[in-house]
């Protein structure tokens, strides 16, 4: 893995944004290298800086490590953190970046809440007495939250596909959502019949 200096701004050296894709980095490097090459009247130091920046940003593992070191860590205990509401109001819509880890984490969370909520609901319904209604409400809340998180995971997967230049068509996105809600509806009907149909 190439070495890097976290105090240097390799993105600025190449003239690209920190979110730039690899092909954009390569293209900008070629453009800058033609202009800054010593044979074209540029400086040797500038060319070395460009080469170093490209070497670091072209390797996914090195770039990830470099980005991690450049990103400020958590706020230390005892420090005073002032929220800049003016900057926040001008930042536009909130978009949470997603990665493969985000998608996997959402799926695990959804499965966890579903795995807790469903058995809890079955247990409560088998031992139903009136004063257990708060627990019944908690079980329904856990199942509803699991559905919400699962839907968020589906949206995260679509965002991942867009970032990898595999943007799904509108028809495919619509089909995924219809399939998702169909599964939720079928599961709800199944749970209803298992719990309540036999009591009537």
Strand content: under 5%
Q: Uncertain regions: pLDDT < 50 for 5+ in a row?
A: 73-81, 94-98
Could you describe the largest sheet, including whether it forms a barrel? none
Cα-atom Rg, whole angstroms? 26 Å
Structural class: mainly alpha
Terminal residue distance: 67 Å
Helix count? Answer: 8
Number of domains: 2
The total of beta strands comes to 0
Order of helices and strands: HHHHHHHH
Task: Name the average pLDDT.
Answer: 77
User: What form results from the Cα inertia axes?
Assistant: elongated
Helix content: 55-70%
Write the layout of secondary structure elements.
Layout: H1 10-14, H2 22-36, H3 44-58, H4 60-70, H5 85-89, H6 100-126, H7 133-163, H8 170-195
Helix pairs in contact: 2-3, 6-7, 7-8
Describe the fold and architecture:
This protein is mainly α. The chain folds into two domains: 10-72, DnaJ domain (Helix Hairpins, Orthogonal Bundle); 100-199. The protein contains eight helices and no strands. The chain has helices spanning 10-14, 22-36, 44-58, 60-70, 85-89, 100-126, 133-163, 170-195. The longest helix is centred in the last third of the chain and has 31 residues, at 133-163. The chain is elongated.
Please name the defining characteristics of this protein.
single chain, 200 residues, mainly alpha, Helix Hairpins, 2 domains, 68% helix, elongated
Task: Give the structure's gist in a few sentences.
The chain is mainly alpha-helical. The protein has helices at 10-14, 22-36, 44-58, 60-70, 85-89, 100-126, 133-163, 170-195.
